[in-house]
């Protein structure tokens, strides 16, 4: 089988390039994971969702993917947080590893093949540092070990920063034992009250960057295909990973580098100082997980994304439309046999458009646009079929439904039973808008009585009364259902 032609934007070359993995048919992916000192925020969630979709799509296209995403469980932030809570740093970190797993599951992320922790890989880390010291690219200084940036001529090839500017901007902090301002710590001598391990340079702990070099080499080899992370990791973290890994192995580290854009909150940068950091788990109490994924995916992963109440509400209405369509289609065709025969129009074209969009640097927004066409045709075929042949319509709907399942596996959307998703959505809206469900049920029952008695004026009056309460009713083959209507301002 020929390899599908996927292109991706490579931060290293600043160009879109065809994906040509080192081993044909197999893609090895490393993504820098969370530092587990707190709950992740929705900016982190966007990054991990983007790579979740990259991995799912590569698998959908037939690649064997090895996906590694680490946990940084040894870090200054963890030590600081542990001092504040009075916990052991290791205990605090493992608590937030569990919290991250819960969050990732809640957001329908696939579990990576390997999720290594720094604290489990100290021997690998020491061994790569030793290699760098032996090669003269790193040096020991009073129990610390530093990478000598001047000994690695390719430094800053990813970030394209100017070394003189960098040197001018870097301070040597008190207590630093480094020779030159740009040199960075691979190993830090132990300080009282901090976790530490034995090493050839005495007790200490790894610096931040070295962990990714050590763990990627362990699970993917010294050279692999795709390295991903958020944009703010390019410098210094990814730059330093390249320097360490290529300094030690003499081989190219990652062939392709992918970076996910920033997420703003209502037009402002998300930051602790502005007090506008939104945790994923808090967001998920207000917005459906798939609607949040839909919101993330409706902007290209490399572009900035603005998290705003209006945009989130729109994403939920869009998901509601999709699920209402799927419920109608399932009611019409699920489990039925319409025989073999031709299909109406060219229903397969939407999936092809979706694939073409995703082949082009994982362009999910264009993929979602193809999906709009697919759902539009489903609605047309269920509501106003342009042809009389019921078997033809049924077969076509079944083919479209099957394509939705394929897309669902890639985007992590529509993974729920439509009726269940819609019910959950309704329950949330009922709580938010303070709607009395018993009263709604009573008015619907009255309306059904009026319709039975052919008192259509009364039935219409009851429909209007419900509408005034924010309730929209739908008469389906399975009876009357209802949903919470969009508020007038948002529907406009
Ligand atoms: Zn990393």
What does the model show?
- This protein folds into 3 domains: 7-280, HUPs (Rossmann fold, 3-Layer(aba) Sandwich); 309-418, Anticodon-binding domain of a subclass of class I aminoacyl-tRNA synthetases (Four Helix Bundle (Hemerythrin (Met), subunit A), Up-down Bundle), CATH 1.20.120; 435-491, no CATH class.
- Helices cover 48% and strands 14% of the residues.
- The chain has helices spanning 42-60, 76-85, 89-106, 122-134, 163-169, 210-220, 234-249, 280-286, 289-297, 309-333, 349-359, 364-383, 390-411, 418-433, 437-452, 456-468, 488-491, and strands at residues 7-10, 15-18, 26-31, 64-69, 138-141, 144-147, 184-189, 204-206, 224-230, 254-260, 263-265, 268-269, 305-307, 471-476, 479-484.
- The strands form 5 sheets. Strands 4-3-9-10 form a 4-stranded parallel beta sheet, sandwiched between helices. The protein has a 4-stranded antiparallel beta sheet with strand order 5-6-7-8.
- α1 (42-60) packs across α13, α2 (76-85) packs across α3 and α11 packs antiparallel against α12 (364-383).
- The radius of gyration is 27 Å and the shape is elongated.
- The two termini are 50 Å apart.
- 40% of the residues are buried.
- Zinc ion is lined by residues 32, 212, 237, 241.
């Amino acid at each position: 089988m020929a390899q599908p032609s996927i292109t991706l934007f490579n931060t290293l070359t600043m160009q879109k390039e065809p994906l040509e993995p080192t081993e044909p048919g197999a893609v090895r992916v490393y993504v820098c994971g969370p530092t587990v000192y707190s709950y992740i925020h929705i900016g982190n969630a966007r990054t991990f969702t983007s790579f979740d979709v990259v991995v799912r799509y590569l698998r959908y296209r037939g690649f064997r993917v090895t996906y590694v995403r680490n946990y940084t469980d040894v870090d200054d932030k963890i030590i600081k947080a542990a001092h504040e809570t009075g916990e052991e740093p290791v205990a605090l970190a493992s608590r937030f590893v569990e919290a991250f797993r819960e969050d990732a599951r809640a957001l329908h992320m696939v579990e990576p093949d390997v999720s290594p922790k720094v604290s489990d890989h100290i021997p690998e880390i020491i061994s790569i540092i030793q290699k760098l010291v032996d090669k003269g690219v790193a040096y020991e200084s009073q129990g610390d070990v530093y990478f000598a940036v001047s000994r690695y001529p390719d430094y800053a090839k990813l970030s394209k920063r100017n070394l003189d500017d960098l040197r001018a901007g870097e301070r040597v902090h008190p207590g630093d034992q480094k020779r030159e301002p740009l040199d960075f710590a691979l190993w830090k001598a132990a300080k009282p009250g901090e976790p530490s391990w034995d090493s050839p340079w005495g007790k200490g702990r790894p610096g931040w960057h070295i962990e990714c070099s050590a763990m990627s080499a362990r699970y993917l080899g010294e050279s692999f295909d795709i390295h991903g992370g958020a944009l703010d990791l390019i410098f210094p973290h990814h730059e330093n990973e390249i320097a360490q890994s290529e300094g030690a192995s003499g081989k190219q580290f990652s062939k392709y580098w992918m970076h996910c854009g920033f997420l703003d909150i209502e037009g402002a940068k998300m930051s602790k100082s502005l007090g506008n950091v939104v945790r994923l788990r808090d967001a998920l109490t207000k917005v459906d997980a798939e609607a949040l994924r839909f919101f993330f995916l409706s902007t290209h992963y490399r572009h900035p994304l603005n998290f705003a109440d209006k945009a989130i509400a729109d994403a939920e209405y869009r998901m509601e439309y999709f699920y209402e369509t799927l419920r109608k289609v399932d009611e019409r065709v699920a489990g039925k046999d319409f025989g073999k025969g031709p299909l109406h129009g060219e229903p397969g074209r939407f999936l092809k458009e979706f694939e073409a969009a995703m082949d082009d640097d994982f362009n999910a927004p264009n993929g979602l646009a193809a999906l709009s066409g697919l759902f539009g045709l489903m609605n047309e075929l269920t509501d106003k079929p342009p042809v009389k042949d019921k078997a033809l319509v049924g077969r076509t709907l079944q083919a479209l439904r099957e394509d939705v399942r394929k897309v669902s596996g890639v985007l992590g959307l529509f993974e729920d039973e439509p009726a269940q998703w819609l019910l959950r959505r309704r329950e949330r809206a009922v709580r938010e808008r303070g709607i009395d469900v018993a009263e709604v049920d009573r008015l619907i029952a009255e309306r059904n009585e009026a319709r039975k008695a052919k008192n259509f004026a009364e039935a219409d009056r009851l429909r209007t009364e419900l509408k005034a309460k924010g309730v929209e009713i739908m008469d389906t083959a399975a009876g009357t259902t209802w949903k919470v209507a969009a508020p007038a301002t948002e529907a406009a």
